[in-house]
Amino acid sequence: RKHTTMQSSTMRVASLILVLSTAVAFTTQRCQLSPRILSRNRATSNRVVRMEVKDILDDSEERMKKSIESVNQNLNTLRTGRATPSLLDRINVDYYGCETPLNQLAGVSVSSGTSLVVDPYDKSALAEIEKALMESDIGIMPQNNGDVIRLSIPAVTEDRRKELLKTAKSLSEDGKVAIRNIRRDALDQVKKLQKADDISEDNAKDAQESIQSLTDKYVKQVESTMKDKETEIMTV
């Protein structure tokens, strides 16, 4: 009986050792897997960060492009003595009680380089188009022959050219300010991500450099457009 009791105790000890060994092995295995799990988590986190930064950059560039379009449209409406259809881009006509852009109601073409011809698609709108042109700030008296409207572009004096150049520079400066404001908004978003520990200092620095590159790109576009407009204004 004593021998049987010792044998039973030995078996219990062996079983306990086996259980402990299994537990240690399982714990060791979990520790070995942890680096891989952490690596996957870091990779996922990095992808999220890249997406957030990309969204900021994409949104900023889209807004900067719209600022460029606005500058171009405003500069094109300046009357420089050269006949261009864009002079009438901001003219709206009361068409059956609805304010409608002129370029949707009529074709506008250049005739002999110094005059514009407005040819309505709907001839019944001719009188309203003439009225809109007379009430606009383009400073040109329309000539209605019952079929089309002609606008003779008068020569621009030297003093008027200087005024136009001043206005053009102001419009281009407004465009650059708008682009820099977009840069400020983007940088603020990056700072918020960094403050919340969503991105590292290095990622934040890379994002800031990308934002500055976009800003430089579109500011240069404004300056190039302004240079071309200055040449146009000052060419007699």
Task: Provide keyphrases for this structure.
single chain, 236 residues, alpha+beta, Topoisomerase I, Chain A, domain 4, Gyrase A, domain 2, 2 domains, two-stranded antiparallel ribbon, 5 helices, 6 strands, elongated, signal, protein biosynthesis
Structure description:
Pfam families: RRF (PF01765). This is Ribosome recycling factor domain-containing protein. One of its GO terms (cellular component) is cytoplasm. Its main location: cytoplasm. Residues 72-234 form the Ribosome recycling factor domain. By secondary structure, the chain is α+β, with helices and mostly antiparallel strands. The chain folds into two domains: 53-79 and 157-235, Ribosome-recycling factor (Topoisomerase I, Chain A, domain 4, Orthogonal Bundle); 85-152, Gyrase A, domain 2. 68% of the residues lie in helices and 11% in strands. It is built from five helices and six strands. The chain has helices spanning 2-76, 102-105, 126-135, 158-195, 201-234; strands at residues 92-95, 98-101, 106-111, 115-120, 143-144, 149-152. A four-stranded antiparallel beta sheet has the order 3-4-6-5. A two-stranded antiparallel ribbon has the order 1-2. A hairpin with a 2-residue loop joins strand 1 and strand 2. Helix 1 (2-76) packs antiparallel against helix 4 (158-195). It is elongated and about 120 Å long. The model is unreliable at 28-33 (pLDDT under 50).
